[in-house]
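Structure (tokenized):
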């Protein structure tokens, strides 16, 4: 019988610096998470942290991590050949089958692009899965940009708007992502679309409101919550909001549910 909370030792295959504060770790693993699910990464005697899968292959997973605490600080000291402990995958990912054949709009803030990166890669590699993709991806400033190669590749196949909250960069716009929602041609989609929003809670809140202002149907919007999960199997209550357990019922939620999840 498989123990759902038993970590498994996995070898780090490579480490890539994405930005000033974010690094991507490629880890050998035979786990097969759905797009949008997360894993628990741990170091013995230090602790563990929930991290979304930002890319995946036949025998590896990638995790894009920001150093924000004891566990992630310790992970940042790891290099290729070292061991990380993984358990999972957990949670509900993006409803990929529901997206098939629909115009897909993706709006991300900062490292909020990580939980949707594997889905975007899949769409780019599967012509015809969706008619088109409109991607608005914003970062605080140039030093915070991640996935440089992916962003440039996606310019070739997606309708892209890349933004910086402050500062200027060639080929980029300046302003919050909410300012550019009105440029998405929702009226031309004839109701056949889905919207993904991922980022810090204030960004998701105001992006959701801006989408509603542009007559986007609430039932067509999906969001992913970044929240500290502990057991990841709905036993400890650490991630509970009202009657919802984010580790089980999320981290991906339809907006009709997400807009009511307030601590």
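Design, position by position:
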């Amino acid at each position: 019988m498989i123990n759902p909370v038993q970590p498994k030792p996995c070898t780090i295959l490579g480490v890539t610096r994405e930005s000033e504060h974010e690094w991507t770790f490629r880890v050998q693993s035979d786990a097969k998470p759905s797009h949008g699910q997360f894993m628990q990464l741990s170091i013995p005697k230090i602790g563990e942290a929930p991290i979304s899968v930002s890319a995946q292959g036949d025998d590896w997973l990638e995790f894009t991590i920001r150093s924000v605490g004891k566990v992630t600080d310790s992970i940042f000291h790891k290099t290729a050949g070292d061991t990380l402990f993984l358990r999972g995958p957990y949670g509900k990912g993006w409803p990929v089958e529901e997206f098939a054949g629909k115009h897909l709009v993706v709006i991300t803030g900062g490292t909020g692009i990580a939980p949707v990166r594997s889905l975007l890669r899949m769409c780019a590699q599967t012509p015809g899965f969706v008619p088109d993709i409109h991607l608005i991806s914003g970062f605080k400033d140039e030093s915070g940009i991640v996935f440089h190669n992916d962003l440039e590749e996606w310019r070739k196949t997606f309708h892209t708007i890349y933004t910086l909250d402050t500062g200027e960069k060639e080929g980029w716009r300046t302003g919050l992502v909410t300012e550019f929602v009105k440029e998405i041609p929702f009226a031309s989609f004839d109701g056949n679309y889905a919207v993904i929003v991922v980022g810090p809670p204030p960004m998701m809140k105001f992006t959701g409101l801006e989408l509603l202002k542009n007559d986007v149907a609430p039932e067509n919007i999906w969001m992913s919550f970044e929240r500290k999960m502990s057991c990841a199997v709905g036993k400890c209550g650490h991630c509970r909001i009202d009657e919802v357990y984010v580790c089980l019922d999320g981290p991906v939620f339809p907006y009709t549910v997400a807009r009511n999840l307030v601590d």
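Reviewer-requested clarification: The domain at 96-258 is CATH 3.40.50.80 (Rossmann fold). The longest strand covers residues 8-17.
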